[in-house]
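User: Hello, can you help with two protein structures?

Assistant: Certainly.
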Amino acid sequence: MEKLGDDMERREGLIALRQIKGIGWHTIDKMLKMDWSPDQELTTELLDFLSTSKISKKSIEFLRGNWSPTFIRQVNEELKQRKIITQTLWDEDYPDLLREIAQPPWVLYMKGDPALLTDYLLAVVGTRRPTAYGIKTTRFLCEEIVASGWGVVSGMAYGIDVEAHRTVLKAAGKTIAVLGTGVDVIYPKNHRFIYEELIQHGTVISEMPLGTQPHPGLFPQRNRIISGLCMGTVIVEAAERSGSLITANYSMEQGREVFAIPGQVGNEQSQGTLRLIQQGAKCVTNIEDILEEYPYIPRQYQVKHKGGAEISVWNEKEQKVLQCVTTEPQQITIIIERLKEEMLIGEIHQTLLSLQLKGDIIQLPGSYYVRK
């Protein structure tokens, strides 16, 4: 087999391969399992294998007709010219949580800040036809998420999704929109303004090739990425057959937390969330109900300075101590034992006092400490 280049061209080859019409996740998986690499030419053996593997003749024709070093260069040059960032499953900066799911995207296309993908993230999704209660709750919850230093992932759809993005952007928080179209295709079309805002102050991502137009079958696939990027998924409002429940199911399959906002018993848009709660999703009414499920993650609340820059309220020592103090009372001897390799005993006592003065923890009788 003739090599087309080094590891960089292997990566660029994968990106170009994803741009060929009809070559989706499963086809790429089959090709790679044949010990073929995207820095190689196509072989008769590979094409014969694909033709007997339920890959359509059209897809194979598109592959045969496009695959060349010239095509690979053209695809990657176009992406650079259009300022579209790419991450492949082989890249070190590919999001670790997303890498863990059953079918992680081979390629992610994005516009905006790629660093947000590795932040602490929560998915906030819901019906496209929210009630006034649903909108109010979305705003309240997303403001609390921003204040806690976490980011919000949603799908830029009508209703709860776009309200979540709007609220986070207004609060100068971190938000990611996962599209079911190409990253260069705005859908719904009248969400152009929010799309532009997301590119400027957040991130828009997709696994779909550039130019991919909306199609009903693409959105369930998109939902696995929404949940896959996140520590947990919050369903605000959802009818009994809402697409948001697909995201909740993916979240459960991926071993992530599922949270549901309780709604009125007789309201159609609350039936999905109420059913989730019956099935074991955690009923939440505020951010504390969510954050207490992640006691191992330091709460890095953010504050604004006059210049607009953000800094953490807690210093490094305070963050270490807070990782040991949970919503269950912890005796000081246990805290010291956990931190003795990192901090002096005097530093631990001083830091505990500092956190008490800030109102973050409470000292109980018997030298027990608990998160406030």
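That covers the first. Now for the second protein you mentioned:
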Amino acid sequence: MPKKYTHTAAFAHFGTAPVNVQWSWSARNEGTKTVAVTLWQDEFKKSPDGRLVYERGPIWADSKTSRGHYELMENLRWALDHCDGWVKVIIAIAKDKNAKPRSIKECAPTKMQVKVIQLDESSGEFSLEAFGL
């Protein structure tokens, strides 16, 4: 990542602002119909058919009571309802990939095109797919 960004500055790059700088992992700007989400760089995977995907399953959903998770579910739903599922991506690199919870070593906005493919708000599971890479 060439330029250094704070997490708040990465959101601002997309014209969004986090509700809370401590726990927000997503933000939206309803005026510009923009949703930005923060995703861990190391958690993108290639599917068997070669697609680049980002998935969160029921193990991660154990944290679904957190305010950041609740806000993320709301923002992904909003993206489906108002942006045809498209979201902007802030890539985060973890200080320690094995830490629970993780913390951000560095992050930056990307040009990646990502679309919400699946969202289960009750379980917290979701799938995103990257396009145009």
